[in-house]
Amino acid sequence: MKKILKTALFCTGLFSTMAFADVAKVGILAPVSGANAAEGEEFVNGARLAIDEINKQGGVAGYTLELVVGDTGQNSAAEVSSATERLLGTKGVNAIMTAYVSGTNFEIDLMAEQDMPYIIAGNPSQTKKIIGDNGDDFPTIWSMVPEYTGYHTDLIPIVEKLQSAGEVNLPNKKLAIVSSDNPYSKSIASQLRDLAPKQGWEVTEYEMLPFGEINDWRAFLSKVRQNPPAIILNTDWVPANAAKFVEQFLEKPTDSLVFIQYAPSVPEFTDLLGNKSNGILYNIMGSAIGTPAMPRTKEIKDKYQAKFGSPTGGAGVSLYEMIYIYADALAKVGNPSDRLAIGKALGETSADTAMGKIEFDTNSHLAKAGDAYLPTLTYQIQNGERIMFSPAKYGNGKFVKPSWKK
């Protein structure tokens, strides 16, 4: 990304001595009120950190960047639609980005209708469902995350590899899955349910709860305790819900590894649980690689902490990188209102970021997956820290047997 910054800042000359009359406005969709406000604030702050840096160094292509926030509240369809329409109707907004908002990503169609450059990191399964292989019909829409195949294919092999290495004892080949009824969580849970038997595992429990605040997981956990599996997977992504799940699991833990989707990557999760979070596993794609093998993540997180006085998870880092990718596209095009040209430049991105190398598939418009691009990263919470142990080449530690495991 240093290359991006250099291109963006110096392609138009002596910005340090120029007075900028022109402003390029960047819209951010974020849930800055409601249950996910803490993470929504990370969206905004990550983008603001990058914009402040770019403007301090002279702007890009003769423009200073300005942030415009569209609050999506509880991320309901009505709230997302309203916030999107407000940004689309704001004079001077010629690019919009987000980590996630609607879950179904229906707002993509609203963006495409106005040729609005839109960078999104949420639910690529839904992005692919909308775009299909018809990328030419969505020239300004780009996903910063790859298809979630790794969430379905990698979990069981990773666990079996731990057993083969003698790092964990699996009592059986049984898997229990619980999810909440939203497109992101449901897609991951249902596809793993269907794939597990093909990998030689039995799904003993599969339960779908209504999406929203969940304070009681005990009915599901009671069933699990009657037939204890080697793995328990919860794909609900809300940190407060996940914290409740762990607390209630630990009331009478089974001899199981516990995976939770996404939520443990958010600082709120460990803030709520403290030491009770130790031993919990999660994997994530398209997220920041915060290890010595990828020092850029630490650099960004340290700058974020210094500026805002609080830590950031993957969302803040992701929005920071989105701004720089947009700045590079603007530097190439020179005119923020030439939306189609900006969209084309975004699609030509080849950037080393905190998440890995970002390049886009020209058909689906999803980021490319794999160790050479964006790998599936598997973490364990240890002493309140997020320790990545797979893939080993990026890792900053090793798996440790949870305290409740035999």
Q: How would you characterize the overall build of this protein?
A:
The protein is 38% helix and 19% strand. The protein has 406 residues and is of the alpha/beta class. Helix 2 (37-56) packs parallel to helix 13 and helix 13 packs across helix 14. It is globular and about 65 Å long.
Furnish the topology, listing elements before pairings.
Blueprint: H1 2-10, E1 22-30, H2 37-56, E2 63-71, H3 77-88, E3 93-98, H4 107-113, E4 118-120, H5 124-131, E5 141-143, H6 149-153, H7 155-164, E6 174-180, H8 183-195, E7 202-209, H9 218-226, E8 231-234, H10 239-249, E9 257-260, H11 267-273, E10 281-285, H12 295-308, H13 314-333, H14 339-347, E11 351-353, E12 356-358, E13 376-382, E14 385-390
Parallel strand pairs: 1-2, 1-3, 3-4, 4-5, 6-7, 6-8, 8-9
Antiparallel strand pairs: 10-13, 11-12, 13-14
Helix pairs in contact: 1-13, 2-13, 10-11, 13-14
Number of strands: 14
The domain tally reads 2
| CATH architectural category of the largest domain | 3-Layer(aba) Sandwich
CATH H-level name of the largest domain... which superfamily? Response regulator
- As laid out across the biggest beta sheet, the strand order is 2-1-3-4-5
> How many distinct helices?
14
Helix content: 25-40%
Largest sheet: 5 strands, parallel
The end-to-end distance, rounded to whole angstroms, is 45 Å
Question: Rg, please?
Answer: 21 Å
Identify the overall geometry.
globular
Return the CATH class of the largest domain.
Alpha Beta
Structural class by sheet pairing and helices: alpha/beta
Order of helices and strands: HEHEHEHEHEHHEHEHEHEHEHHHEEEE
CATH topology of the largest domain: Rossmann fold
Q: Mean of residue pLDDT?
A: 92
Portion in strands: 15-25%
